[in-house]
Amino acid sequence: MAATEQQHDQALKKFLDERPELRVELDNLNPLLAQAKGETAAQYREERLHEAFEAEAEHLGLFAWELTLQLTAATEADYQAQRLEVHREVAEMAGMDWLEYCELYGLAH
């Protein structure tokens, strides 16, 4: 069960709520930068938010979808269960043996 768009939106909101300095930065982006990219100010802001979210995930050694699950799961146990479920789906889609996949990504199985 990959993270849904609704979960991701909730995670982005929580991520931003926990980082007031990032909110200030995003609220004060230069509109000329958006215009130069052919984007609206809102599109440009959203892109910068996603970049900050992905950078945080990378900093934590997570995939962005893992950070989404971490920020939206009710408990640590829920997060771990959802995370393993998505990893299983990825291993299946990749046609990889589960134990080999776990070893490759350092997962307890």
From TrEMBL:
What organism does the record attribute this protein to? Pseudomonas gregormendelii
A Pfam family found in this protein is DUF6388
* Protein name per its UniProtKB record: DNA repair protein
Q: Which domain of life is it from?
A: Bacteria
